[in-house]
Amino acid sequence: MIYLDYNATTPLHPKVKEKIIDFLNDYGNPSSAHETGRKVKFMVEDARESVASFLNCRPDEIIFTASGSEANNTVIKSVGRCANSLCYSSAGKSHIISTVVEHPSVLNTLKCVENQNIDVTYVKVDAFGRVSASDVEKAIRPGVTSLISTMYANNEIGVIQPIEEISAIAQKYDIPFHTDAVQAIGKVPIDLKKLNVDYMSISGHKIYAPKGIGVLYKKKGTKALCPLINGGHQEFSFRAGTENTIGIVAIGEAFKQLKIEMDEEIIRIKKLRDKLEAGLFKTIPNIKLNGHPTERLPGTLNISFKNIEGESILLRLDLFGIAVSTGSACSSGSLEPSYVVSSLGVEPEIAHSSIRFSLGRENTEEEIDQTIEKVGEVVSFLRTMSPIK
Amino acid sequence: MDGVGWNYSDVVKEHFMRPKNILQVSEEEYKADGVGFVGSPACGDMMKIFIKVKEGRIIDLKWQTFGCASAIGSTSMLSEMVTRDGGMTLEEAIEITPEAIIKELGGLPANKIHCSVLGDKALRDAINDYYKKTGQTDKIPKTEAKIVCECLEVTDEDIRMEVLEGVKDFDTLQKRTKVGTSCGKCADNVKKILNDFVEQYYKCSIYTGEK
Ligand SMILES: Cc1ncc(COP(=O)(O)O)c(C=O)c1O
User: What CATH topology corresponds to A14-257?
Assistant: First the structure.
């Protein structure tokens, strides 16, 4: 199997797997005062420190959640919720600025709060999928805008947003800023001492830790959040529920490994991705890159193979043992193709023809060579059966 | 790969991997007696069917598609059903339903049914084209569509087509067709017609779960 779907999820890092296996007998509740509990508490805090050390922030700014989606929900649903929480507006009305290319865990959460006396502006992107910081600035309603939430990097096309510029604008108007960094972590260097964000969402399963563990970074001193889940005092009372200790220990280890491997991996993976991109463009005519040529995650390549449909490409590649994903409507079972690719202002057929290749730490050069060859075969076969020439 | 989680039957897989009766030569060279054409790439699928007719039978059928695995599998199957044993008569062929194709395929996942209707639609279009070209316009079946929403002139046939495209609930139907958005009197009747079609088209499918 040649796995080229790392933006969907990643396998466990071998060191993370080892860590989990070693941990499986440590069943203690971190809130217990006895040794069994204290031991696990220590490991949870060690994990917290490893996350903080990677991001260059304080451990007490790290809140473990059950997913990236939960981290996104927690921030957005805090807006205007209770008197002491984020951006409570005495005017009674709140306003959030976000973008049209956010992950569904942001978009659908915004849709949900739109019914609750909150206005949302969805800033559009350019033909490369980038948001302009000045468009964000223009959308600001002074005194009413309570949150700016823009993703760091897009999951489908890998485009990296001008986060520094947007955060500077948020700072200028004193508006809290959240970024969904789920796809960016481990793929672009992030230093929270330099980058000014108030809240940031992270997910374990995109960085070689298991599914079902996430992180919400909340800057010290920034406006409070309303917990999504009320209960005990876990996670500084931001997130109740006895901790997912296995997940926490695992994501802690994943961050330790990222710290060791990331710099080299970014270079190595970008080289493989560039090889794949160049190889496909060289051998297959009539294809189009979706996304930005350079401001893009090192491992992501989203291409439309004109005149043929994405799901049929995906499934033929699947039968050859190559795993990719597509923005065609047929693969999702919905009637609409990818809203992200569509947001680039292309014809709908471009979205229906799009394939995302996303590379990661287990990919090799030989795999890329094989992929170029197989994709070529699949595309030319499907094109012989296409009525559009 | 061992087919874990493969949502399609082995028959679909075979037809998808080795589709039968693809038009390999140019249209000029093939010289079809009738050509049918439905869908558009913008909607995610498009189908073109070419037939050769002799003594009232379809002796050859070739096709091309911009479509997903289900569209490819079901049209490949359709092409075999039509040309098998000397070919179907035009009267037989025009009666082929998506259900008949899906049955021969051993079922399709529920969310893929709408992809399988292009083949038979394009085939009917090709047969009608043949009738037109040979001056037999009297044989082109009149669709007996009944208007169910007077205000917006939506017919039961329109609803059937929407269901085949994947619409299953009234809200989506309304968004796409505007049915019942004016006086609203027809809503109950439309809901009933919608449910009947959903029942008819999605009952026969095998559902193996979403990925
Ligand atoms: C950009 C982005 N945000 C959020 C998420 C959700 O993360 P999780 O799967 O942990 O809920 C994902 C991944 O699916 C993602 O790609």
Answer: Aspartate Aminotransferase; domain 2 (3.40.640)
